[in-house]
């Protein structure tokens, strides 16, 4: 087994998104908790949108459940759908626009190959399933763009999976 060395750009590629996620949570939920205020819809929008960008993987489903105690479920589902869809559209077009080499370096060869294998094998069902469950759907959106899947199909399957996921979460919690 060869010894893998971490390069400075790879270390920065891991630390920078982690710091960004911590800052986002601190400036939203953290600040509101310390100020003894109820959570704002703006903080949910920021957290949820950021969590669906491929380079900032965050537990958006947990944030959704947390915010359910503060807001109407229908309102929160609508906002979750809008923010997740907007972020995944960005992910899709990044995959479509940037070179594969750049994306493979930034995201990681193993994750990209696994996502690519699933999409090639199961097609848009992969997009639907990854949006239905708390899986890495932003990476799937990125790879769907890289593979130049039809945007309309990608959007339909993404929104359908997200809608069902958030409806079920709101019914359970």
Automatic annotation (TrEMBL):
Keyword DNA repair attached: no
Transmembrane regions listed in the UniProt entry: 12-29, 128-148, 154-172
Pfam family, any one: VTT_dom
Keywords: Membrane, Transmembrane, Transmembrane helix
Keyword hit for 4Fe-4S: no
Source taxon at top rank: Bacteria
Domain annotation VTT: ranges: 60-172
Protein name, per record: SNARE associated Golgi protein
Source organism phylogeny: Bacteria, Pseudomonadati, Bacteroidota, Bacteroidia, Marinilabiliales
